[in-house]
C-alpha cells in the first residue's frame, strides 16, 4: 500500500460529490487534523478526505469509489481507540460512522437492542437502564466511545470479569465488506449455530475486514443492587496477591480493579481522596438483587483481602460515593498522561494465577531500566494496563526495550499482548512474539480473501510485508 496520491483522492471526491450531500465530504485541514489523531499516543496521520456516512448504502459507495481509484479507507468514529486502529497510516479516506447514531430498537420482550455504529456506548447503557435492562460491557471511555469502535476492537472494561466483553453480547451484524457487499450475519436469538460464526470473526477485526452498519445486541435484566468497596493496601504486590485470593474464594465480583501507587497519586484528590498510606488499592464491586447478600459478599471478599495484607476496606455508602470512585477510576489513563510529557499505555493480559508475578516482574523491569511504570486495570481478569511514563524523546530507546521486555514477560507467562485495546498500529511489531508464522500467515490470507486490494485500514494488526 502506498500513500494515496492527490489526484486519485480528487477523483474519489469528485465521484462521491455526485451521490453524497456536500456536508458529507470535507477536506478542511482543521477537520483532517482532528481525524488524524486518537488516544493511542502514536502521533498524527492525516487523512486526505473525510467522508461522513449516513446510511449503509453510503458505506458501500465509499468503499467502491475509493478502492476503484486505489485509495485506502480507514473507518473512524469517536477516536477514543488506544491502539491506533483509526489512524489512516497511508492517508486516503477516513470514513466516519458518527452520524449513524440511532438506537433503532430496544426490545424488553426479546431482550435485544439494535443500534447503529455511531451510538455512544453510554447512551445505549442509559437507554437499556431506562427499561430495566443492562448492557454490561463498560470500556472506561463509555461516555464518549461508540458502539462501532467497541465492535471493531471487541472492547472490554471493568465488568468483563463477571459479564464478558463486547463479543459476548453481539447476536447479529449488518456488515459491509470492502467489496461493498452487505452481509447480514448472526441472529436475534440467544442460541443459533447456522453456518460459520462470522460475527465472532468480525467483532474484534479492528476495522480491517469491513464495517458494522447495524448491530444486534443481547441485553440482560439489570441487577437491582450494586455495592462497591475500596480495599486499601500498602503496596501493589500485596494487592495483586489479594486479587488472586479473592478470585479463588468462590465468589465472582463484577469488578476487581487494581490501582498501584503511581495511579493513586495520579487521581488522588480528583473528586476522591485516598486514605493516607495507600500504596495500592482494589475496587471490588458486586451486584445482585438483594442488599443483604451483597453486603455479605463484600464482607467476605474484604476478609480474604485482609488475610492477604489489606489495610482497610471502605464501603461506598450510596450511589453518589460509588460514582465518585468510578469517575476517579475512569480518569486514570488521562491523569497519568498529565504526570509526565510522554506516556505509553500497555494492555497485556495474563492468566489469573500469574497476576502477582506479572506485576512483580514489570515493576522490577521498570526499576532496572530506570523508568516509571504505573500498573492499573482489570486485575480480576488478568488484564493489566502497564503504563510507561517518560520525560523526553531521548528516553525512547529505553522505553522500546522496556515494552519489548514487558511483552516477552507476558507471553512467557502464557498471556497475550492485548487484552482489550487491540493490536492496531501500536502493537503490530509484537504480534509475532505471541503468534506463530503459520497462524499469522493464515490470518493474512483471510484478510486478502475478504479485502483483495488490501486497501481497508492498511497497516493494522500485522507488520507490512517488506
Ligand atoms: C482503562 C482503559 C485504558 O481501563 O482501558 O482505563
Ligand atoms: Zn481498560
Please tell me about this protein's structure.
With 466 residues, the chain is α+β, with helices and mostly antiparallel strands. It contains 16 helices and 19 strands. Strand 5 (103-107) and strand 6 form a beta hairpin. The protein is globular, with a radius of gyration of 22 Å. The model has no long low-confidence stretch (mean pLDDT 97). It binds lactic acid (LAC) and zinc ion (ZN).
Annotation keywords:
466 residues, alpha+beta, 8-stranded antiparallel sheet, 5-stranded antiparallel sheet, 16 helices, globular, binds lactic acid, binds zinc ion
Terminus-to-terminus distance: 11 Å
- Mean of pLDDT: 97
> Which ions, cofactors or small ligands are bound in this entry?
lactic acid, zinc ion
Say how many strands there are.
Answer: 19
Low-confidence stretches: none
Helicity level, as a percent range? 25-40%
Report the major sheet. Answer: 8 strands, antiparallel
Helix/strand structural class = alpha+beta
Roughly how many Å is the radius of gyration?
Answer: 22 Å
Task: Name the beta content range.
Answer: 15-25%
The number of helical segments is 16
The shape, in one word, is: globular
How is the secondary structure organized here?
Layout: H1 6-19, E1 25-26, H2 29-35, E2 49-52, H3 56-68, E3 73-76, E4 93-96, E5 103-107, E6 112-115, H4 121-130, E7 133-134, H5 147-153, H6 160-163, E8 170-176, E9 182-186, H7 198-202, E10 211-218, E11 220-221, E12 225-233, H8 236-247, E13 255-259, H9 261-267, E14 280-288, H10 291-307, E15 312-315, H11 319-330, H12 332-339, E16 342-345, E17 348-349, H13 355-369, E18 372-378, E19 383-390, H14 396-412, H15 431-434, H16 437-450
Parallel strand pairs: 2-4, 3-4
Antiparallel strand pairs: 1-2, 5-6, 6-10, 7-11, 8-9, 8-10, 12-14, 12-15, 13-14, 13-18, 16-19, 17-19, 18-19
Helix pairs in contact: 1-3, 8-10, 8-13, 9-12, 13-14
Amino acid at each position: 500500500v502506498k500513500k494515496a496520491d492527490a489526484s486519485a483522492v480528487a477523483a474519489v471526491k469528485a465521484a462521491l460529490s455526485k451521490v453524497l450531500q456536500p456536508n458529507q465530504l470535507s477536506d478542511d485541514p482543521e477537520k483532517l487534523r482532528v481525524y488524524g489523531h486518537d488516544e493511542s499516543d502514536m502521533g498524527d496521520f492525516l487523512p486526505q478526505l473525510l467522508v461522513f456516512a449516513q446510511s449503509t448504502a453510503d458505506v458501500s459507495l465509499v468503499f467502491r469509489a475509493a478502492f476503484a481509484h486505489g485509495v485506502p479507507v480507514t473507518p473512524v468514529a469517536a477516536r477514543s481507540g488506544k491502539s491506533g486502529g483509526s489512524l489512516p497510516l497511508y492517508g486516503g479516506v477516513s470514513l466516519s460512522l458518527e452520524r449513524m447514531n440511532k438506537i433503532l430498537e430496544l426490545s424488553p420482550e426479546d431482550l435485544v437492542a439494535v443500534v447503529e455504529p455511531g451510538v455512544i456506548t453510554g447512551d445505549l447503557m442509559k437507554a437499556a437502564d431506562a427499561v430495566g435492562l443492562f448492557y454490561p460491557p463498560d470500556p472506561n471511555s463509555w461516555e464518549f466511545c461508540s458502539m462501532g469502535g467497541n465492535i471493531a476492537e471487541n472492547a472490554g472494561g471493568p465488568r468483563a470479569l463477571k459479564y464478558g466483553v463486547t463479543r459476548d453480547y453481539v447476536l447479529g451484524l449488518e456488515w459491509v465488506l470492502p467489496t461493498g457487499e452487505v452481509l447480514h450475519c448472526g441472529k436475534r436469538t440467544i442460541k443459533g449455530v447456522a453456518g460459520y460464526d462470522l460475527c465472532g470473526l468480525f467483532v474484534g477485526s479492528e476495522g480491517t475486514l469491513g464495517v458494522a452498519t447495524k448491530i444486534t445486541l443481547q441485553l440482560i435484566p439489570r441487577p437491582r443492587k450494586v455495592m462497591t468497596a475500596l480495599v486499601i493496601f500498602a503496596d501493589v504486590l500485596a494487592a495483586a496477591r489479594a486479587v488472586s485470593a479473592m478470585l479463588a474464594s468462590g465468589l465472582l465480583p463484577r469488578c476487581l480493579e487494581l490501582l498501584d501507587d503511581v495511579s493513586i497519586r495520579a487521581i488522588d484528590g480528583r473528586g476522591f481522596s485516598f486514605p493516607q498510606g495507600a500504596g495500592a488499592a482494589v475496587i471490588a464491586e458486586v451486584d445482585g438483587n438483594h442488599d443483604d447478600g451483597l453486603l455479605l459478599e463484600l464482607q467476605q471478599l474484604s476478609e480474604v483481602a485482609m488475610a492477604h495484607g489489606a489495610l482497610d476496606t471502605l464501603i461506598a455508602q450510596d450511589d453518589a460515593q460509588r460514582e465518585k470512585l468510578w469517575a476517579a477510576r475512569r480518569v486514570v489513563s488521562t491523569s497519568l498522561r498529565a504526570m509526565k510529557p510522554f506516556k505509553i499505555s500497555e494492555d497485556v493480559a495474563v492468566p489469573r494465577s500469574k497476576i502477582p508475578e506479572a506485576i512483580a516482574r514489570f515493576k522490577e523491569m521498570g526499576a532496572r531500566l530506570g523508568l516509571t511504570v504505573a500498573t492499573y486495570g482489570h486485575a480480576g481478569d488478568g488484564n493489566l494496563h502497564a503504563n510507561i511514563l517518560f520525560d523526553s524523546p531521548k528516553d525512547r530507546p529505553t522505553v522500546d526495550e522496556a515494552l519489548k521486555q514487558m511483552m516477552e514477560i507476558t507471553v512467557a507467562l502464557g498471556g497475550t499482548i492485548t487484552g482489550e485495546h487491540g493490536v492496531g498500529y501500536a502493537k503490530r511489531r509484537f504480534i509475532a512474539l505471541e503468534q506463530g508464522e503459520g497462524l499469522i500467515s493464515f490470518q493474512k490470507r483471510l484478510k486478502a480473501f475478504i479485502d483483495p486490494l488490501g486497501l481497508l485500514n492498511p497497516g493494522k494488526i500485522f507488520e507490512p510485508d517488506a
